[in-house]
Write a structure and sequence with these properties.
The protein folds into 2 domains: 227 residues, no CATH class; 197 residues. The chain is 75% helix and 0% strand.
Length: 478
């Protein structure tokens, strides 16, 4: 029975993704991963020469852990995510409410399904690409396979940690923070004198005990998470009267935006944003990538023979790019399918959520920019950083809205959509990153160059915004 449920869950995962993204694009995504694995091996000698052998292997393991965290991030939404987005599909994860199977068991099977899916969908293609890369380098195939096993253990550690956190997240935010800090402290204490993971230490130094410890970590995390799953999740009641009164207030407040979208839609989306407490989730979702960037800054300073300082302008570029996450969160509040019965268009909802992105969620990146600027003692660069952040954010989000509509989270799994997104977003970000790193050498020239790029991006942002109607008007909400 367990095997049958796992197979059906995998089929369900594929059907959901191919229904939101094109089937051709979805199944082409592993090809991109394979190419990435090939490129990483081909250029590994250059990276090792710059960073050092040990440091390069460490950053690969850290990347595997963070990818595991990303792959397991859907676990943070739990039943709440299913109720709001996929509840009308009747997913297998909800079987415990109608069938004689425990929530604990079905959640554990769902976790196993996530590991199997991402292993087949990304990890295995990356390994195949790396194997192909060995034909163009002097890397031993046997060593590559052994190292891939250690990377896979790190990936399982990351996804298990997401599962571990999600089990406490369903109980309370306080327990979530305490449990996360407790694990981080214990992990740091265990591996303080060793490499970043037990499996990497075994690979470099041959200590079998650390390999065992490294394998125990994801098993322990997933076991604790499974044990912590509650059989019944009671959702808190919603103050309906309060939201009704607020709708009238917001409808009048946003009347001036009637040329952008219907004030009633904006008011409804604003209330949903408050009701779901998505603003808090957006804030904490920023902590993950910014924490990773901060770590990368420290790691590059330690691993490279040159000094690289990521300043406020650089963080402005990165935070602007992460605005895509804020827009994707706005698309995760509720299912838009009920709009099909109303005389409105998909483009109306897109423009309403873009309006919320620009007027309601602005404080999240602003808070991060102010904190980073203060901690870096670069308050003089804060105005420039804010301009860059706003320009990049509007540019990226307008293109994301134009290209993915209301299905941002799933559409980017389409290989063709992802390639276009990459080509649109990465080149200007690289240019602005290079300019930000050179700001102290020729500030006047750099400021002129940044101004030109910001102007060009603003023009393209306007073009993308105007194309929303032509692309999405007439499309269905299904």
């Amino acid at each position: 029975m367990n095997r049958l449920i796992l197979i059906r869950m995998l089929q369900e995962e594929v059907r959901l993704n191919t229904s939101f993204a094109s089937g051709r694009g979805f199944f082409s995504f592993p090809i991109l991963v394979l190419i990435s694995g090939l490129i990483s091996i081909v250029f590994s000698d250059v990276m090792i020469e710059d960073m050092g052998y040990n440091d390069y292997l460490q950053i690969l393991h850290i990347s595997a852990i963070f990818y595991g965290l990303f792959a397991g991030s859907l676990a943070f939404f739990g039943n709440e995510f299913l109720e709001r987005i996929f509840g009308y599909f009747g997913l297998i994860l909800g079987l415990s409410t109608t069938q004689p199977i425990t929530q604990r068991k079905i959640t554990l099977l769902y976790f196993c399904k996530e590991i199997i899916f991402y292993t087949l969908f990304t990890m295995l293609p990356a390994l195949l690409g790396a194997i192909l890369g060995t034909f163009y380098t002097d890397i031993s195939l046997v060593n590559l396979l052994i190292f891939s096993i250690t990377l896979y253990i790190s990936f399982c550690t990351g996804i298990s940690f997401s599962y571990y956190i999600s089990s406490f997240y369903r109980v309370s935010l306080g327990q979530t923070i305490f449990s996360a800090m407790f694990f981080i402290i214990c992990y740091s204490a265990i591996f303080y004198k060793y490499e970043i993971t037990g499996s990497l230490d075994w690979y470099l130094h041959g200590d079998m005990r650390l390999l065992v410890v490294g394998m125990i970590v994801p098993i322990a995390l997933s076991s604790i998470a499974t044990w912590n799953i509650r059989e019944h999740n009671n959702t808190s009641s919603i103050n309906i009267i309060g939201y009704k009164n607020r709708f009238k207030e917001y409808n009048q407040k946003y009347y001036w935006a009637n040329k952008m979208s219907m004030p009633g839609i904006i008011a409804k989306e604003r209330i949903d944003l408050e009701r779901s407490k998505t603003g808090t989730k957006m804030f904490f979702s920023f902590l993950f990538p910014l924490g990773f960037l901060t770590f990368m800054n420290w790691f590059l300073d330690r691993g490279l023979p040159i000094q690289i300082d990521f300043n406020t302008i650089f963080y402005g570029v990165m935070i602007g790019f992460f605005g895509t996450m804020l827009y994707s969160w706005l698309n995760s509040i509720d299912t838009p399918h009920f709009y099909s019965t109303l005389p409105i268009q998909v483009s109306d909802i897109i423009r309403a959520r873009l309006f919320l992105f620009g007027t309601i969620t602005w404080w999240i990146p602003l808070v991060f920019m102010a904190i980073i600027s203060y901690m870096s003692n670069e308050l003089n660069l804060l105005p420039i950083g804010l301009i860059v952040m706003i320009t990049v954010g509007i540019y990226i989000v307008n293109y994301t809205a134009m290209s993915t509509g209301l299905k941002t989270n799933s559409a980017l799994f389409d290989a063709f959509v992802f390639i276009k997104f990459f080509l649109i977003s990465v080149p200007p970000m690289i240019a602005m990153t290079i300019l930000s790193l050179a700001i102290n050498h020729r500030p006047s020239t750099i400021l002129v160059a940044l101004s030109i790029i910001c102007g060009v991006l603003s023009l393209f942002s306007l073009i993308f915004y105007r194309r929303i109607d032509s692309k999405w008007t007439g499309e269905s909400f299904d």
